[in-house]
Please model this.
Amino acid sequence: MNILVCIKQVPASSKVEVDPVTGVLKRDGAESKMNPYDLYALETALRLKAEHGGTISVISMGPPQAKAVIREAFAMGADEGALLSDRNFGGADVLATSYTIAQGIRKLGQFDLILCGKQTTDGDTAQVGPEVSEYLDIPSVSNVIRIEKVEEDGITVQMDLPNELEVAKVYYPCLLSVDKDIFQPRLPSYIRKMATKDKEIPVYTLSDMGDQDKTHYGLNGSPTQVKRIFPPASNDHRENWHGDADELTGKLYDKIRELKFI
Model:
């Protein structure tokens, strides 16, 4: 089975600068990590490979520093990886991002199964996976929480829908967006990390894409624009109270009334 996993590097904390002109996150140099949901997708691929054989490739889109998550994927067990990185890709909304990733996948070749995390922690749209499948013209299902059966022509999965659990067989090639309950991700192997530390990671730019029209990528290819983006407000106010039990109980009651919790 030829498996591809889409992974993304996301901010490691909520303290991220925002470009005041474009309204997008400043990712260059920011402390980052692999998107947590993508770890579940990668673990799913590793277990499928262990049981049914095949190869695992990963693809990511981002600045050059995003190679770090590809190397983390190597340390977990991925075989190959590629990065889509070009200034023309920057500032993309979910539609332009999905189109770019789909173009990158076409560059990499044919895959039986494409796995994505359900969503990212910096966007939370849960739209990229299904949109990539649309651009590739392959079937997809989301909210996958269990692999029921793997066959030569397709894969049967269980989906966690709002009001029910649904089981469906999806025929290859297909795309699955997996939820966090599917498997517990393994830790990267130090031995694999050292063995793959010099492994080449090809970087694909706009000039490598089948479609090289700049208006289809990045901000130019994004029909939606961010009107305003800001980091979440932090409340670090605190009060220290002293007194006996009766005094503290009274103060706590007054504070709860003041905050209108009761």
Observations:
- Residues 102 and 132 are 5 Å apart (CA to CA).
- The chain is about 25% helix and 25% strand.
- The first strand starts at residue 2 and ends at 6.
